[in-house]
Specification:
Blueprint lengths: L2 H16 L4 E6 L8 E7 L3 E8 L12 E3 L4 H13 L3 E2 L2 H15 L3 E4 H5 L7 E10 L2 E9 L1
Length: 149
Amino acid sequence: MSRSEEYYDKVLSTLGECLHKDEVILAKSPVGCKGSFYVAVFRDKYYYKVLRFSDHKAAVPYLAIPTIDYTVSRSVLRARIEKALNEPWVRFTFESFYALKVIEKWAEHRVSIFYERAYKQKKYHKHSFYLIEDYALEGKRIYSLLVSI
């Protein structure tokens, strides 16, 4: 059992203690090869939040998923989880549902999505989509979708 797998149960039980009655763990990822895992929490049928638990910073820090260090004491972990849960939630819209269904269908047809780093490193894959960051506008990042056929 790896160190991060040892923390997995501690994090999930602490997160469960922090959830309000209208919040539920919707999904959780297994521990990745670098020791990180993700948990999706659902609230009031329309809102969700994804939390990243790890012992290191994210490689792509500007993604809007907060990282919580799981190597801290249980009381500090609890305080950080509560803080993250009190920050704004994302509303699950029809557009969100549609985007997820498109990704699901792409996976059925073995179509992959890669982030800009793979494209810049010229690791091209046939039948793939690459998200390329074009520029930032008023603090928001704008992305283009590049298709490799």
